[in-house]
Input
Amino acid sequence: MKRRVVITGMGVLAPNGHGLEEYEAALREGRSGIRYIPELKELNFACQVGGIPQGVEAIRERYFVPEQLISMNENISYAAISAVDAWRDAGLTVPSFDSDEVDWDSGIIVGSGIGGMDTIANIVVPMVNAGKVKRMGSSIVEQVMNSGTSARVGGLLALGNQVTSNSSACSTGNEAIFDAMTRIRAGLAKRMLAGGTEGASPHIWAGFDAMRVLSKKSNDRPEEASRPMSASAGGFIPGSGGALLLLEDLETAQARGARIYAELLGGHVNCGGHRMGGSMTAPNPTGVKRCILAAIADAGISAQDIEAINGHLTATFADPYEVKNWTGALERGPENFPYIQSTKSMVGHCLGAAGAIECVAVVLELYKGFLHPSINCEDVHPEITAFSKSIPHQTVECPDLKIIAKAGFGFGDVNSCLIFKKWEE
Amino acid sequence: MDEKKIFEELINILRLYAKDPALLETATKDTHILNDLKVNSARLVDVIIKCEDVFGIEIDDDDADKIRTIGNAIEVVQSKLA
Output
């Protein structure tokens, strides 16, 4: 029999709030974390707004000593802050650096879509090009290596199980959670931190601006800029931040008397193979539907049991297609469709961190019994007006809410779907 | 620059790299940078670069290899400033 996996701790550093309390308040209020970023204007970006966690420097200095800070770029900082928060939230203790105790039962999977671009752009490229390799110092590799994030957190928390960084574009955060779940189910770890992180560097966002997939329509109205499912959506708004969830074997969690937020019933990840309408940048609808159905089967529920969907829903032309894919997979039309919401309407698209930041929202919703509004879509996209009543424009209190499906899709035609359930004894 | 001043500057530099900066309060010339201050060995490179900047000197790899204690570092800096 599969081991059951529950969530016992969470940490989040999002554009609209740091920590569970602030983040929940922001979600309930429908508070946007999207701001005007003057640097983007100076750099001639078409999109000049974005989501960046606020006050991070002060948080970093409160959490870490100078020796740790010198090798923590944005990407790593966001993950490290979220990891420490999640660990403490679960009732666990951050070990001292001079203790030789290693936690062999706990590990971490945390990745990024792009990664330590600030280090590459601000240090590696200019210094190497100027012939100053010798002056770069010792902390470059640990900040630009793909596993830099998990490596740093592994050391902070003395983790002795699997410590790795995954990457699957905008599906990264969900994928990390899925992989951590399967590891615990297999009995290979008792506890896994899982999530994603993404820095706020313009050098990360530049490629998307160059592709013209970022919205340039709302530079003067940042809080209204991220418009998933809206008729006036003009592309996604870049975001950044980090989030980690502590997944734990149910028995282990109960044995230590841990507070349980929710159960991760199941999930699935796959790829559409860049065929049947799929490509590097567009999802194969068959792949999406297969992913959703496999997640439902893995969770041991039926499509009818899903009460709400926290979609990928980025505010590009793909939103109506996503809704259609859900309809096809669940075989539930507009009259019988679950609630559907986009956390990105408030935080933008946090790329590799998106899935994790949004999963924290989902778990909070189940634990506290509410659904946050999907803001900026009062003008529902014409292709999905039939689904209007499924979109919450205000917070909905729903204490009996039991099951939410969370999806994420990414470049490379990759898909992920996770099924969360309210914890009940 | 006298020895006392060099020592103080070195302590300031090491403050960035010691895992527990409080250890610097009791540091002497005999304090071992890696063993006593728990500086990660990879960070010695950064200590050398900082010394070059702060004291306006150049430290080659052979001299850098001689540095084990704060006293060793003082000697290398003094030899370059001489």
Summary: The domain at 267-422 of chain A is CATH 3.40.47.10 (Peroxisomal Thiolase; Chain A, domain 1). Chain A is about 35% helix and 20% strand. The longest helix of chain A spans residues 74-89.
